[in-house]
Amino acid sequence: MTERDLRVVLAEDSVILRDGMVELLTARGCRVVATAGTPDELLAAVEHHRPDVAVVDVRMPPTHTDEGIRAAVTIRATAPRVGVLVFSQHVETAWASRLLAAGATGVGYLLKERVARTSEFMDAMRRVAAGGTALDPEVVDRLVHGGRAGRVDTLTAREREVLELMAQGHSNRSVAARLVVSERAVEKHVAAVFTKFDLPASNEDNRRVKAVLAYLSETGG
Fold first, then answer.
1. Domains with residue ranges and CATH for the chain
2. What is the pLDDT at residue 144?
3. Can you point out the beta strands (E) in the chain?
4. Contact indicator for 8, 33 with CB cutoff of 8 Å
5. Distance between CA 68 and CA 16 in Å, rounded?
6. What is the pTM of this model?
7. When comparing pLDDT for 203 and 110, which is higher?
8. Residues 99, 85: Cα–Cα separation, whole Å
9. Peptide bond before 62: cis, by omega within 30 degrees of 0?
10. Beta-sheet strand order (sheet of 53-57)
11. pLDDT band at 117 (very low <50, low <70, confident <90, very high)
């Protein structure tokens, strides 16, 4: 799926930022079918338009705490085919865990600074709209290094690197390119992760999702 195929609902209460994001998305060929400034407006827009992806600010009116993430969780439950990409000013591992509780497909969590990096933002939108995962590297790093002991601690340093990149939504080929190793080497590390997480042979994508969820459940607080 390319940007030009994407139908987007955008939820951001700051008019300046919202207008800027609409301009950015439109310039890249996306069709912003609706914008929203409140959680209720967001939920109504998703229900009406059923977009490919909803881009949602974590903090929204009236309290500017977790209204956006709660609306995102609702979308995940009521419209599972709609990708959800949330963005926040800060790393909030508890919010990331709540968002991923229903599964690690069609979901993303980015820091707002990443939104300004157009290529990264658009890549994350494409992955989420296609049913993939896009977690900000800083979110993943906080989850990895701030969690409690568990199966993650049985991984080697390289296996953990591979799993971190899997959690960010990278394919084996992309992981290999980033770590400058062969794709076969990555496959071996992924297989080791599956073994240590006690994930028997089944659908490859399903096992990747389960591995990411196990990783987040043990490192996310």
1. 3-137 (3.40.50.2300), 147-219 (1.10.10.10)
2. 58
3. 7-11, 31-36, 53-57, 83-88, 107-111, 133-135
4. yes
5. 18
6. 0.69
7. 110
8. 10
9. yes
10. 31-36, 7-11, 53-57, 83-88, 107-111, 133-135
11. confident
